[in-house]
Write a structure and sequence with these properties.
single chain; 334 residues; alpha/beta; 2 domains; 11 helices
Length: 334
């Protein structure tokens, strides 16, 4: 196996899936590799909120990298759930001649925060499997009550589309018809929840509130969830997917995610010519033909950040991109 010494960072976050077998239980792990640079902290903090396990990594050849662990550990305490499990990892153990952080120092810091400690090498694959396996074991132990409740069904808990073995096609067709009937009655917000719940292991829905379209998102970050619950769409709605902090998707302060997506996809394939027609709604500057035109413009993106097909305008019902989601999951099935 060749080790890639230089990798490119696209969006500040990389994503992988891995299936581990722990004590006879198949565990499918979603691994979010978040960047350590200061400019990505707004992004990475969002991933703490739903994390069950976190690996804090420093470079043993960099004292500065080690010092930053205290800041990351503080962020985890502030933003992550109470049951989150953590381990500390010192990477680049193969570069002993360049070591700046003694192993004893890493072990001492880990004990201070109640974490287990590993030194690893991504280059030689030293302790990589061991560290991920141990973190997964800790997560399972922390959620033992929930696991006991599902004992006997865990191995069968896969996305319906990808269940192995014989399937009753007629029964599945009836279920699909029931889903379609239900989907037609759902608003866009409900459709987002439905897609996330229908493909929980391989699809991750990310929402980015924005106030650049008719000033429809004029709440503060702390008020957005209450607005969704009580105002629009209301009726006690709670998003079943990750919602980021409010950001700009057009103009000078465009979020890096949307700057990247607009560079890759100049405009939605289904609506290549429409920009906002009413000048009073063009509240950002500079204005570009590639700008997002309104709320609920959608992008389907593969794990490393590359867009799959072209974007989808507000005219496309969210649920109507499901066939493309299924196609992408088939193409990337592992």
């Amino acid at each position: 196996m060749n080790f890639i010494h230089r990798t490119s960072l696209l969006l500040g976050v990389d994503f992988k899936m891995k299936t581990l077998k722990i004590d006879g239980i198949k565990v499918r792990v979603q691994i979010w590799d978040t960047a350590g640079q200061e400019r990505y902290q707004t992004i990475t903090k969002q991933y703490y909120r739903r994390a069950q396990g976190i690996i804090l990594v420093y470079d043993i050849t960099s004292s500065r990298s080690f010092q930053h662990i205290v800041k990351w550990a503080s962020d985890v305490d502030e933003f992550a759930p109470d049951k989150v499990q953590r381990i500390l990892v010192g990477n680049k153990a193969d570069e002993e001649q360049k070591r700046k952080v003694p192993k004893e120092q890493g072990n001492k810091l880990a004990k201070t925060y109640g974490m287990e400690f590993f030194e690893t090498s991504a280059c030689t694959n030293c302790n990589i499997n061991e560290s991920f396996t141990r973190l997964t074991e800790l997560v399972l132990q922390a959620h033992k009550k929930e696991m006991d409740a599902f004992q006997g069904s865990t191995d069968k808990y896969l996305d319906m589309t990808y269940q192995e073995g014989e399937q009753d096609n007629n029964a599945n067709s009836q279920k699909a018809c029931a889903h379609v009937s239900m989907m037609a009655k759902l608003l866009t917000w409900g459709q987002l929840n439905l897609l996330q719940s229908k493909y929980p292991h391989r699809l991750v829905v990310l929402g980015f509130p924005c106030n650049q379209f008719g000033y429809q998102e004029n709440c503060s970050n702390g008020e957005i969830l209450n607005s969704l619950k009580y105002v629009r769409p209301g009726d006690g709605y709670q998003p079943g997917f990750t919602v980021f902090e409010k950001c700009d998707v057009n103009g000078t302060n465009t979020h890096s995610v949307f700057a990247y997506l607009k560079d890759k996809l100049p405009y939605p394939d289904d609506d290549p010519h429409t920009l906002i027609q009413d000048p009073k709604f063009l509240i950002w500057s500079p204005i570009s033909r590639t700008d997002i035109s309104w709320n609920f413009e959608k992008f389907l993106v593969v794990a490393r950040g590359e867009p799959f097909l072209n974007g989808y305008s507000k005219k496309i019902e969210t649920i109507n991109i499901e066939p493309d989601i299924q196609r992408l999951l088939r193409l990337t099935k592992t």
